Amino acid sequence: MTTTATAQASAGRKAPTEHLGHVIFITAAAAMGGFLFGYDSAVINGAVEAIRDKYEIGSAALAQVIAVALIGCAVGAATAGRLADRIGRIRVMQIAAVLFTVSAVGSALPFSLWDLAMWRVLGGIGIGMASVIGPAYIAEVAPPAYRGRLASFQQAAIVIGIAISQLVNWGILNLADGDQRGEIAGIEAWQWMLGVMVVPAALYGLLSFAIPESPRFLISAGRSDKAKEVLAEVEGAGSDLDARVAEIEQAMRSEHKSTFRDLMGGRGGLLPIVWIGIGLSVFQQLVGINVAFYYSSTLWQSVGVDPSGSFFYSFTTSIINIVGTIIAMIFVDKVGRKPLALIGSVGMAVSLGLLAWAFSADLVDGKLPHTQGVLALIAAHAFVLFFALSWGVVVWVLLGEMFPNRIRAAALGVAASAQWIANWAITASFPNLSEWNLSGTYVMYTVFAALSIPFILKWVPETKGKALEEMG
């Protein structure tokens, strides 16, 4: 049987429904890494102003403390794949869980600013590992008939993690009577915000002991009998386990290990399709989406919203993020990748333009005028909605589909690296830019959103309905 025929046979098999509940449990457990990814990324939002006040630092130093976690993210993402091939997917999950736990405790009880930065880097490494190992494990364990739907658990877990972090921050702030530095049981509120992550981190670690190792890793390690046991758990003992093991072995033998050299060619050194992937990754960040998740409390307080209100708006924004993600998951295969991305780009450009106009108003008694204040709140939520229903999901779908098989792994690595770098640039620059001119900063984000429209129209390929083998 050829590789293509084998793949088609796999895709056509239906997993026994009595095993589906167990498969969903396994997938949800692995997706806890995605939850922690979202939680750890966004929880710092509640502590920004308290950190600035406690350590008496300016915007430049504050930006580095917030953004330094992204360096850890890049390290974790770069090392997770190779480490997983050596010691297994489950062991990497357990390492990530330890890093999340240690980071939470250290961040909650720092001795100094740079000590806090070090704990943030460790948490970032955990984020990077979770961003790689979760989707890889789910793809390898999920039955072919349900793989697409189960793979969406990771993205759903990320946006839920963001929302829960903002809800917890808001709850802790209210317990501290609206003071980010108010004490609860002798510890300041912002420290509780960062420390609460111990709970989901410990749960992630415990769940990793309750799920099986990936059949693919077990086969690569010469443990085919154990791989058959796992396949029987997720696909049913009635399937031909010997054939499934042979199918996985054949796929592994036929895989091409792409390297950076494979990406070379064309203008600018890299293949055109690789530049398109980099462009997608960079545009996704340059519209300023992570400002909404890392700095929204600070942003609203800077235009006169009280701390409790600013934390509440951070939470409602994260709920909108979940709604938009669900919309994208429903329509990405129906509408197509390019149309959804275009809808998002137009919506983001308009929303960001309205935000830029609202923030250009002079403050009255430290607050935006009523009209501009209401418009800013509506536009900020609209911006997150349009991002979530388009670029938040579509970019990852496109990056997973549009590269030819022979360069997919290496090209994905380059595109993901570009995304972390752009994320760092936006995160590190926002405090200084907002102090210089908040409206001007949002004009810049608006321009990037507008530029993404011709970029999509001219260069981004539509991958809807195409087999991966068709990507030439």
What does this entry look like structurally?
It is a single chain. The protein has 472 residues and is mainly alpha-helical. The chain has two domains: 1-255, Growth Hormone, Chain: A (Up-down Bundle), CATH 1.20.1250.20; 258-472, Up-down Bundle (Growth Hormone, Chain: A). It is built from 21 helices and two strands. The protein has helices at 3-12, 20-43, 48-55, 59-67, 69-87, 89-108, 113-141, 147-175, 189-195, 198-208, 215-220, 224-235, 241-254, 272-286, 289-294, 296-302, 307-331, 337-359, 370-388, 391-401, 408-459, and strands spanning 183-184, 187-188. The two termini are 23 Å apart.
Percent helix: over 70%
Q: SSE string, helix = H, strand = E?
A: HHHHHHHHEEHHHHHHHHHHHHH
Per CATH, the architecture of the largest domain is: Up-down Bundle
Largest sheet: 2 strands, antiparallel
Reading side by side through the largest sheet, how are the strands ordered? 1-2
Uncertain stretches of 5 or more adjacent residues: 1-13
Give the CA-based shape: globular
Number of E strands: 2
Percent in strands: under 5%
Q: Give the oligomer, counting copies of the same chain as homo and different chains as hetero.
A: single chain
Topology:
Elements: H1 3-12, H2 20-43, H3 48-55, H4 59-67, H5 69-87, H6 89-108, H7 113-141, H8 147-175, E1 183-184, E2 187-188, H9 189-195, H10 198-208, H11 215-220, H12 224-235, H13 241-254, H14 272-286, H15 289-294, H16 296-302, H17 307-331, H18 337-359, H19 370-388, H20 391-401, H21 408-459
Antiparallel strand pairs: 1-2
Helix pairs in contact: 2-6, 2-7, 2-8, 2-10, 4-21, 5-6, 5-7, 5-21, 6-7, 6-9, 6-10, 7-8, 8-9, 8-17, 12-13, 14-20, 14-21, 16-17, 17-19, 18-19, 18-20, 18-21
